[in-house]
Specification:
Blueprint lengths: L11 H16 L12 E6 L5 H12 L3 E6 L11 H9 L4 E5 L3 H10 L4 E5 L5 H15 L6 E5 L4 H13 L2 E5 L8 H14 L2 E5 L10 E4 L11 H8 L6 H7 L3 E4 L11 H4 L6 H21 L1
Parallel strand pairs: 1-2, 1-3, 3-4, 5-6, 5-8, 6-7, 8-9
């Protein structure tokens, strides 16, 4: 593994190795406390962030490394100077580049011109670090990931894409339930279904919440992606039947609920469920740090 732009690029063994290492270091950071000693990681943000910024910053420190935060006060990457020059300059100083960007093509260009590893911490198409933390959380609570059935409910987006590919690579079953017209990218669905078939998993898409029956966990995300100015009132009626609430949890039989946050309480998920006994949402948030640290260890110490 030289970079992490999408989980499509990783093998099942690589994904499992990251998850296993993340679980191990979560229990004890002592063996890796100096793993990144003398190394610096640039964390670049075109978009606002709480979990991504803090989890990388503190996580890199836990590994003995130094995080350099760059916000894009001068606009999107490539405006003040080219992405090529940005990547080549950073590569002379830092040991890795973690980038949260608007456009996946920016990451491709960073990877093309950087001589250090590039990690996608979110783009318009994927959110691989989130999906790794999510399946780490599912392993902690459900065990064998090949036996897990995950139900995603809401708007098909970058998180959905990464969850689909993670589930497919791991041989898990996944159900994606969305309102008509809000499904994930069709080409990615076809590709993920083919990968799932290779590994003994399944991917089912539906507009009917009845398809969620038998899921071990339900997963919610915001109904409006970051940067979308659509008023919540304009989509609430269409999405309301897809809210994760106690009735949907009971209908599906799911024991656990996940949400990548930030969450809009009483919109895509109720507080009763979010704060209830089946919520592993804060475990997810914590596990972002451990999963990301495992990625950095794979990239910088193997």
């Amino acid at each position: 593994m030289k970079h992490l732009l999408t989980l499509k690029d990783l093998t099942q063994a690589q994904i499992l190795a990251i998850i296993d290492q993340a679980i191990a270091i979560k229990q004890d950071y002592a063996p890796v406390a100096d793993a990144l000693k003398g190394k610096s990681v640039v964390t670049l943000f075109e978009k606002p962030s709480l979990r991504t910024r803090v989890s990388f910053d503190i996580g890199i420190n836990k590994l003995g490394g130094h995080a350099v935060y760059l916000d894009q006060q001068n606009g999107a990457l490539g405006q003040r100077e080219s992405v090529q020059d940005f990547a080549m300059n950073l590569s002379r100083w830092c040991d890795a580049i973690v980038a949260r960007v608007f456009d996946h093509n920016t990451l491709i260009e960073l990877r093309e011109h950087a001589t250090v590893p590039v990690v996608n911490s979110l783009c318009d198409l994927y959110h691989p670090c989130q999906a790794l933390a999510d399946f780490m959380t599912l392993k902690e609570h459900c065990g064998d990931l090949s036996q897990v059935k995950l139900g995603y409910v809401g708007d098909g987006n970058n998180v959905t894409h990464s969850l689909m590919f993670a589930a497919a690579k791991l041989g898990a079953d996944m159900v994606v339930v969305c309102p008509p017209g809000h499904f994930p990218d069709g080409n990615m669905v076809v590709e993920a279904k083919a990968i799932a078939a290779e590994h003994g998993g399944t991917l089912v898409l539906s507009t009917d919440t009845a398809a969620l029956e038998g899921c071990d966990a339900l997963y919610a995300d915001t109904w409006i992606s970051m940067g979308d100015d659509t008023p919540i009132s304009a989509i609430k009626a269409k999405f309301q039947p897809y809210q994760i609430n106690s009735a949907l949890m009971a209908q599906s039989g799911a024991k656990y609920v996940l949400h990548c946050q930030p969450a809009h309480r009483e919109v895509e998920i109720t507080s009763q469920v979010m704060d209830g006994p089946g919520s592993v949402i804060l475990d997810q948030a914590e596990n972002r740090m451990h999963a990301q640290n495992a990625v950095l260890l794979q990239l910088l110490t193997q």
